[in-house]
């Protein structure tokens, strides 16, 4: 009997994109099981690969350009236009201009990294005639609340003396005024929709500085500086624009970029899968399979808070499907995922190693891990045959 397997993974940050992850898992399975039908649905959540995935799914077009990277140096980036839409719809991802991958490890300081290049991508899409813009938030290397993005689009952020702030989240502690009079004129004519993690908020104990700052290079002291700066940012936004962003759903997405997009350029924030699943075919494939295998760079207590493996599991359970998750690493509290539709999870690592080694060897490690999963499936089949035979 043919076993139908759906492989629906995320990418592994700084290592493999979602398509590469799906290919590695398929290779590992086929080393052991021949009587299987494999379907692949590599997924994106607004982070790296969002633009290319949606452009590819709609037969759209991709456009390359150079923008200001997160550490202030030019980087090669891209945006796209979707195919088959009545509105001329551009799509872009913040990770292509301000992603963590673009911040060298020795330069990871979220007090100074900037989303300025994201604003340049938006400007390029506007000037290419976009009538609607889809923006993916994820995999960020910044914590500036979207201030740099807004500055690139003409929004002036001023200190008490009326001087423009510099770039980086640390500058926001000096914010006193917001001047939108020279904002890009086409922003008022274009619908901007943002796919973001709805669980991420700007301020408070679960604010983006405290939860994600350390992943971007922030020391404990830097985390507190960023938290204070973002509190100041939120205070001025509420005072000058009448918008309370502190705990607004999605306000902390991509180091607070969600706040800047909504409050400073008028974008609408959406839970990311409301946007993504309009263009990808996961839901159409689930009724046709017997088993789902998903994957992510890390599985931990945060995975149920909007990460791809948990979303895949949630949708798979509508069809009562078993779900296996493979991960580069297993972090604290990972067992909570067993309550959210994932039936088994495992790390691809078999021995202790440096992060750099794991990243470099991710493809063979993942392929070997998928082979081990296939061997467990084979054992399960043999047990079932024995049971049926009355053994």
Walk me through the structure:
The protein is an alpha/beta fold and 391 residues long. The protein folds into two domains: 144 residues, Glycerate kinase, domain 1 (Rossmann fold), CATH 3.40.50.10350; 226 residues, Glycerate kinase, domain 2 (Alpha-Beta Complex). The protein is built from 13 helices and 13 strands. It has a six-stranded mixed β-sheet, with helices on both faces. Helix 1 crosses helix 13. It starts with a strand and ends with a helix. The mean pLDDT is 94.
Q: What key attributes describe this structure?
A:
alpha/beta, 2 domains, Rossmann fold, five-stranded parallel β-sheet, Glycerate kinase, domain 2, six-stranded mixed β-sheet, 391 residues, single chain, 19% strand
Secondary structure layout:
Elements: E1 3-7, H1 18-30, E2 36-40, H2 50-57, E3 61-68, E4 74-81, E5 89-93, H3 95-98, H4 116-127, E6 132-136, H5 147-152, E7 156-158, E8 177-179, E9 191-196, H6 208-212, H7 220-241, H8 253-265, E10 268-271, H9 272-276, H10 282-285, E11 291-299, H11 308-317, E12 323-330, E13 344-347, H12 355-360, H13 362-388
Helix pairs in contact: 1-13
The name of the CATH superfamily of the largest domain reads Glycerate kinase, domain 2
Give the strand order of the largest sheet, numbering strands 1, 2, ... along the chain: 3-4-5-6-9-10
Give the quaternary arrangement of the chains: single chain
- Which H/E pattern describes the elements? EHEHEEEHHEHEEEHHHEHHEHEEHH
Overall shape:
globular
- Terminal-residue CA separation: 21 Å
Tell me the count of domains: 2
Taking Cα atoms only, what radius of gyration do you get, to the nearest Å?
22 Å
């Amino acid at each position: 009997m043919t076993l139908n397997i759906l492989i629906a993974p995320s990418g592994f940050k700084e290592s493999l994109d979602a398509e590469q992850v799906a290919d590695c898992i398929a290779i590992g399975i086929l080393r052991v099981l021949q009587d299987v039908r494999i379907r692949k649905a590599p997924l994106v959540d607004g982070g790296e690969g969002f633009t290319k995935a949606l452009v590819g799914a709609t037969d759209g077009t991709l456009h390359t350009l150079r923008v200001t990277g997160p550490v202030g140096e030019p980087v090669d980036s891209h945006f796209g236009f979707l195919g088959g839409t009545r509105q001329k719809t551009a799509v872009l991802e913040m990770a292509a201009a301000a992603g963590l991958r673009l911040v060298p490890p020795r330069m990871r300081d979220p007090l100074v990294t900037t989303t300025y290049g994201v604003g340049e991508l938006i400007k390029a899409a506007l000037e290419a005639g976009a009538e609607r813009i889809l923006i993916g938030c994820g995999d960020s290397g910044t914590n500036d609340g979207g201030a740099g993005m807004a500055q690139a689009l003409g929004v002036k952020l001023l200190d008490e003396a009326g001087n423009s702030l510099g770039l980086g989240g640390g500058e926001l502690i000096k914010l006193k005024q917001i001047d939108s009079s020279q904002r890009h004129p086409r922003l008022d004519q274009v619908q901007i929709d943002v796919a973001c993690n709805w669980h991420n908020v700007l301020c408070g104990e679960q604010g983006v500085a405290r939860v994600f700052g350390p992943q971007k290079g922030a020391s404990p002291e830097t985390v507190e500086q960023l938290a204070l700066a973002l509190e100041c940012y939120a205070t001025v936004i509420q005072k000058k624009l009448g918008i309370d962003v502190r705990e607004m759903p999605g306000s902390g997405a991509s180091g607070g970029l969600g706040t800047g997009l909504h409050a400073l350029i008028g974008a609408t924030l959406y839970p990311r899968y409301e946007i993504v699943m309009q263009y990808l075919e996961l839901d159409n494939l689930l009724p046709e399979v017997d088993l789902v295998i998903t994957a992510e760079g890390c599985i931990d207590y945060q995975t149920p808070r909007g990460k791809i493996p948990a979303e895949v599991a949630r949708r798979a359970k509508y069809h009562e499907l078993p779900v296996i998750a493979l991960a580069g690493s297993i972090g604290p509290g990972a067992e909570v995922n067993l309550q959210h539709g994932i039936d088994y999870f495992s790390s691809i690592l078999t021995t202790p190693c440096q992060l750099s080694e794991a990243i470099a060897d991710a493809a063979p490690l993942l392929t070997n891990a998928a082979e081990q999963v296939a061997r467990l499936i084979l054992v399960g089949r043999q047990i079932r045959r024995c049971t049926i035979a009355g053994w």
